[in-house]
Amino acid sequence: MIYRPETEADKNHTPDSNLIELTTNMLKVNRLEEIDTCYSSARLGKMAFIQCMEKIEKVKYFLEETSSEQDSRSGKNEAKEKVWSHVGLNEKTPVTSKRTSALTEDVPAPSAPFDHRIVTVKQAEVNSFYTVSRKEILGAGRFGQVHKCEEKVTGLKLAAKIIKTRGPKDKEEVKHEISIMNQLDHVNLIQLYDAFESKNDMILVMEYVDGGELFDRIIDENYNLTELDAILFIKQICEGIRHMHQMYILHLDLKPENILCVNRDAKQIKIIDFGLARRYKQREKLRVNFGTPEFLAPEVVNYDFVSFPTDMWSVGVITYMLLSGLSPFLGDNDAETLSNILACRWDLEDEEFRDVSEEAQEFISKLLIKEKSWRISASEALKHPWLSDSKLHSRLSAQVTTSC
User: Fold this and answer.
1) pTM, whole model, 2 decimals?
2) Which is it for strands 61-63 and 2-3: parallel, antiparallel or unpaired?
3) Distance between CA atoms of 108 and 123, rounded to whole angstroms?
4) Is 249 helix (H, G, I), strand (E, B) or coil?
5) What are the DSSP calls for 73-100, one per residue?
6) Is 113 in contact with 191 (CB distance < 8 Å)?
7) Which residues cross the membrane (predicted)?
8) Residues carrying an active site annotation
9) What is the pLDDT of residue 121?
10) Which DSSP category does 157 fall into?
11) pLDDT score for 37
12) For a designed S-S bond to 347, which of 2, 107, 135, 141 qualifies (C-beta 3.0 to 4.6 A apart)?
């Protein structure tokens, strides 16, 4: 099964080389000097790799409509987008509600060990309130490092995200992340507990989970990641994203590295890293020029307007990876990756998809669509048979039992 752009014009379209070069350069300009590990192949689950972390300048462009010509050209798509953006916004589901499913491990992720709180930044030393284990590094990236820490008064185990700030602009960006997290109260979204500001850094104290990145499970040859597992993970991702979209917030950096497992054994996850998240305002058209190349939606590569469907494209890429261990658009370099994305060039013909259900393949096909207004929303994704059909889940469970 091969999926191509939906129109004849798209089929014959060759991505503009200048646009790809410009986007590639914008991503390379901000590359970190510090190198961690980076994908060297599409077959992520089978090959060693070196991941080059992107230092992404977090910028927000609220652009006004500049001409009637632009309006007439984009009017139809904007109309579709407005309809799309309201899908499911009134379908708020209490996070404590029980799910009805044939999936035996379909249990909501545990709530944070503290009530949701509105955090204000303290002008104080973090060491006065917390014992931060500088030697225990939980993660690292463009922002700095995350360490285990413990609140001195209560003994509560938490995680301290230490962000190096070079000036007022960097601090304002971190304060923006804090204001975003203050709005998000959901079991599948990591919760903020406290925040501190000093001369050269800012520290976010957050809920602690110890299951590692979802990415680690994708590439672990010793971990048997089944389609049922993928259903459980994607269902929770969609529930977390639905809550964000109900709050009119876009994540804009969804990838397996930004999804943590609650523990090593359970199939429960929490979405992290809201440093690039943006509030969505219908009258203020938002463009962004950041992200990880292989997870970028076409509208980001084209420097076009982004909205809720931009996150759903990333959900489609993550679903593809969970089911196959492959990255659908990854090329030999950033330019080739961006070209594949703009051409919407992907397929399900690899051997890894041989035993994947038709429902799963259709689910992917409803997300990896170039025209963003045609992608299904998080609410619609949760109603899709792949995530909601108990008979399908029972059949897949029986297949797993038989294979064992």
Assistant:
1) 0.78
2) unpaired
3) 36
4) strand
5) HHHHHHHHHHHHHTTTTT----TTPPP-
6) no
7) none
8) 253
9) 98
10) E
11) 34
12) 2
